[in-house]
Every structure is written in C-alpha cells, then in structure tokens.
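User: Hi! Is it possible to get a structure for several chains at once, not just one? Here's what I have:
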Amino acid sequence: MTLPPVPPTDLNLPQRTLLGPGPSNVHPRVLRAMSLPCIGHLDPAFLEVMNGTIDLLRYVFQTENRLVMPVSGTGSAGMEAALVNFIEPGDTVIVGVSGLFGERMADIVGRAGGRLVRVDAPWGEPLDPDEVATALAAHPGAKALTVVHAETSTGVLQPLEPLARLAREHGCLFIVDTVTSLAGVPVKVDEWGLDVVYSGTQKCLSCPPGLAPLTAGERAVEVLKARKTKVQSWYLDLPMLVSYWGTERFYHHTAPVNMVFALYEALRLIAEEGLEARFARHRVNGEALLAGVRAMGLEPFAREGYRVPMLLSVKVPDGVNDLEVRKDLLGRANVEIGGGLGPTKGRIWRIGLLGHSAQRENVLLVLAALEAALGRQGFKAGPGAGLAAAEAVYRAEMATAPPAGASGPKAGGR
Amino acid sequence: MTLPPVPPTDLNLPQRTLLGPGPSNVHPRVLRAMSLPCIGHLDPAFLEVMNGTIDLLRYVFQTENRLVMPVSGTGSAGMEAALVNFIEPGDTVIVGVSGLFGERMADIVGRAGGRLVRVDAPWGEPLDPDEVATALAAHPGAKALTVVHAETSTGVLQPLEPLARLAREHGCLFIVDTVTSLAGVPVKVDEWGLDVVYSGTQKCLSCPPGLAPLTAGERAVEVLKARKTKVQSWYLDLPMLVSYWGTERFYHHTAPVNMVFALYEALRLIAEEGLEARFARHRVNGEALLAGVRAMGLEPFAREGYRVPMLLSVKVPDGVNDLEVRKDLLGRANVEIGGGLGPTKGRIWRIGLLGHSAQRENVLLVLAALEAALGRQGFKAGPGAGLAAAEAVYRAEMATAPPAGASGPKAGGR
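Assistant: Yes, the chains can be modeled jointly so their relative placement is included. Here is the combined structure:
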C-alpha cells in the first residue's frame, strides 16, 4: 500500500467574483456558520437549528405550509424529490419545457414511470398559457403540471399565477422549480396557490450548494397520503423525511449538519434585509447591468417583459469567441460568468447577480472587465459607455428611492 | 408579508465530543477548508480539487478503479446510488441483513424493482457465509450480493473476503456498504474483489456529513454499460455523474463545492497519517474502551471476534435507563454517544471512536462520564476500574510499539 502523492499543504484557491448562474458569492457570516464544529444530527441543539431553519424558509417561501424542509442534496435533488413523490407509474404529467431545466423535469417524469405530455416554448421564450390550457383540456385527470419559474438556461421568468389558476381549475398539482428565483423575485407560495415548490441554496439564497429547500401544501400532502405505491427513492422519500424534520424526529438519514448551519445563517441574512428590500436590490442591479450591456452594443437573449431581473442572458456578438471572453474574465479579473447550454452553447452568456452577488461594485466590475475582454476580441464597445449607462440607472434610483431607514427592515450588514 | 421572529444574532452551539455512531469530531483543518470562499463548480481551480479528491479516495479505497467519486448526498444516497444503478426491474438481488442498514438495502432493492432474496442474521451476529452460499446456489443468475461491512446499528464487522469469493464464483456483483468502516479498518477494494463500494464522510473520514464516496470496478462498469433501462434516479445516475467527475467535465448538477473542499482536506489528513497508522490508532483506542467498559461491569453486544474496533455496542445494564444516561453524558459532559435502533432501542449503547474522535483523551472522558452517569442510576461500577483498565491497554501498547518515527508516514498533526 503506497501513499499517493500528497497534494500541497493547503488548498490554495483563487478568490472569484461569482457572476454566473450560480453558485453566487457567499457572505462571510455564512462561511463562518458553516465552519462551526459539527454536532450530532439528533442533538437537541441541532433540532433547534432545524426548527429555526424551517421557520425562516416559511418566510422566504411566503407560506404557512407545514411541510417545509431542506432536502439533503443540491437543487436537482429537490427537483427529483418534488416529482417522484407525487408521481406514480402511469400518471399523466404535463411538463412545460422552455430550457434545460424543463428538459430535466421531463426526463425525471419518464424515469418515475409518468406519462409525459410536453408543452414546449423556444429557448428564450416563456410558455404560452393557452397552450398549457389546451394540454390540460386534452388530458383530463392529469396528475400534475410542472414548470420552471426562472429558467436558468435562458434567463426567462415564467409568470406563475395564470398557470396556477389553470392547474387548480383542472384539479391537478402545480409543481414549480424556483431554484434561481427564490429570494431574488417574489415566490408567493400561498397567495399564488403553488402546490409543490423547491429551490437550491447556491443561487439567490447565497449559501454554498448542497441543500434543496422544498415545500408542499395540503393538496399535495393529500396526494402523498393517497399513494398506492412506494416512492421509488428511499433517500428522497418525503413521508420519511417529514418524520425526521417534523415533530417525530424519527431518524432517517444523517442530515448535512454544517450545510444546515450555513443555510440557517443565509436565511437570517435574508430576514434581516427583508424580502422586499432584497427583491428591489436584485431589480436595480439587474437594470443597471442590462442598461450597461446594451450601451456596449450587446443584445439580451430572453424576450422583453419576461426576463429574470438578476440573471441576464445576452447574445455573444458575431465574430466574438464565447470561451475566450469567459477565460479572459476569469483569468484577468477573477470574474466568473456563465456560457450557454445545449442549443445556446457558444451563443449566449449568462450573467448572474444572485443574492450576495447583487452589488453595485460587481456590476461595475463585470462591465469594465467585459469591455476590456470584448476589445481584445476586436469588438469595440463605446469606451466607458456601459459603465455610464449603469451609473445612470443607479442615479435615477437614488433620486426616487425613499430616504434610508424610512421604511421596511434594515439592510442587514450589506 | 410579515417578518418572522428573527432568531438570535448568532448560532450559539454547544461544543460536543462526538462519540456516537457518527458524525465524528471534525479536525479544525477540515472546518477551515470548508469555509473557504465558494468557487464555481466548473472553475478550473475546482476541477483540480476534484482530481485531488479522486486521487485521495483511490488511496483510501485501496483501488486503481477509474470510477471513483463522491456522490452529492449523505451515506444513504451512496447506498441508493450503489443499488439503483446496478439493478434493473426483475433482477434478483441477495441482500445480507443483520441490522438496520441491511434492512435499508432490502427496502431500496424493492423500490428499484429488484427481486429480493434475504439472508438474515440476528442483530449482533455476522452473516453466515454458508447461508449466503446456499442462497446463491438457489438463485443462479442473481445480479448482485449486497452486505454491510460495519453494521452501524449493531457494531458487527462482517468479514468480506469469503463473501467476495462466493459472489465471484456465482458471477454476481458484490456491493458493499463501508459507511462506518472506511478509513477505520482496512477496505481493500481491489485485493478483496469488491465490485461496488460506497461510504459516508461523517464517520472515519471525519468530515461533516454531506457526501458519499463511491467506487465501482470494471465488472460493475460493464453491468452499467449493459443496462437496458434508464437508471430510475436522475440525480444518482452514475453514467451521467461519471461525465462530470471524469475527463469530459460535462455539467450534470452543481457539486456541493465547499463540502468537496472539506472532503479533500479530510482525505489529506488521512494520507498524511497513513492508513496503517490510522487503523492501528482505531484498534488501540477501541481496545482501551472495550477493556474499560468491561472493567466497569458492562457487556459488549456484538459477537466476539466480529466487533467493529471503533464502534463498540454495549448492553444497557438491567435497571439502568438508556435515555437518562445519554442525557446525563450530553448535559453534564457534552459527550454524545448513540442509543440502539429498532429491536435494540433502549437495550444497547453505541460508542464510536471514529476518525478524529479516536483519541486517548476521548476514551478517558467517556469512561469517566459514563461511570458518573451510571452511578447516578444506581449502577455501581468499581470506582476508577474502567479508567485503570483502559490505561493498562495503552501501557501495554506503548511497551510493544516501535519508537516514534521508526516506521511509516508521520502522524500528521494529531
């Protein structure tokens, strides 16, 4: 038994400004909470942290649902949990597909033995509610309608209320992916009537990846109780998970204790800032970024009126090499932005201002670094035009904003 | 939208000595690595950390397998991944069940559509290889034989080599749970011929819970390639995970980046100490603990000759209340030990000396605290008898041990 070459004494990582589609920058308070000494997953002190985490998640999901918990995996584990628990073999499921994450939902529905009915929209466009209505009418008795709120692959924000009403009218569950939207734009679980909603920690919650907050309302819980078959996944079996996260505290699996510490702290930061202030911060910084890239001569990809405020998809200009620009940003400015996926690979960039990353200094940095990188590719953005346009947005905002401290909870250390 | 009552300013957690069946104490270097600023899951710097992690996992698994990775979930996610990827509906799977984690495997085999054949042993006993041989002979064409190496619920260590030979003779895969054993006792994946092996990070690897290292050999990879059906889980789909962790770096899901930092550092500590020294440390401390509890008049639960050296199951004496003793240890000494599960609930304790927890000071602490707690329950252990017996083991070990630094890699900061 020979020793492997032991890697160097210490992890020596670059410090990045994370402006891709996630993970986002993590607040130092969250990193500090995560590195507290581990305690047992059934320790009374940990059960208190679990309770606090659930309370705070209810606030962020804007729900009174009893069933609220972080699933012990990344956002995709949340997606799988949200689907396999509510679908039984043979159930018809209508899946809205307008990007990669809708495709992923469709894939999982098939693996769960569901009868898949797709409603497609081109990448960059939202789903058409009329087409969803047609699909629902054509498949009476469908078990669920599933959509992605903020399609991370395209930057499109799907309005949820019309679809929630349709699902309710047709008596089927409405299952929604809010991986990129939660805590960045409103997700009103109760008011809008969303039955099953999941997210991921590494986007607008600004916690490292590793947990998937999930909530389900009473209609969904009834469906769960009425299942005739076992949930295909033991690890993601919601009734068993509820026994652990709920009042019974029945051992299921060992929760990722330190990740829960991190999530708890990330959620506290959100509560301190207040959701409305947080949404406004995402909106303003997103507007400044959009104004900046437009002034540089770039075009947004997602359709106007349906753009995720804090995840800008922008077309790679003709003659510019996607990968070279991203390498330039990373190598010369330590700025990460995202590229396209699937059909948009090489064709778009995705610039995220998620959670703690949504800061004026980051907008200025990415615009300045992008202008330089594009220049090296022979693309001439008007010098300083992007920065000037972004600044104009901030100035206009300052002119209309109420005086600091005039309303709402304080901005909590930001 | 009203704010929830914001929890107190900071997480204020007790500092525990973790001597249950996991999680174990985490080395400060691991906590520090975990709290490094997050970077992107496709960042070249993160890909290097992934490569280093895989190299180090190969060392710990004692394997040259190409397929080695941490699954993005806790040990139970590793179990599910190890089963659902290799089982297709209708496959016969022989499951050794001698405790809770064997039961869990049997449950998952059923959910995956496998035809379950159980070989049972009473809790506290190992499986009988003859009974396994009989089951294999009675079910020619069985797809897999699965067992738990160190049954966390009973403290029994199952010898693997005879079963590996049987599986090979009958042409079926041998799938092994090493959640509690890996890095505490030898797990020789290649030498013993183990086809699929998974573990968890929060036991002898002494990393917080959240990842499940997994490896599969060539025979297993062939089975994977020959699948006729999709893997039922998208999140745990090994061929897709291999594309991300392997050379292609094809995006699958967002890896729990900071958890990987932590695992990398935990594995480096193991490589610095050296596996043989680490096994010896677990053995000596385990012997000292066993001698101590015996001298106090307590009896081990698992059968002699088949005990996990670093997880002692011990019977709760007549007239002593299990829960009161554990509360006493936790409340008065900040020491966590485990209780029984299922049929042994209230009947046994499980005292773990896993990974970084396997230290002389922890053995002395738990014996002293246990003597006091038992005394408050009216159980009279000879005063100081446990400590004296443990000390005798350490003295004997010192007398026979080679002088420090005489052989093997250094003990790496312990």
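The CA atoms of residues 148 and 177 of chain B lie 5 Å apart. Chain B has 14 helices and 14 strands.

User: Great, thank you!
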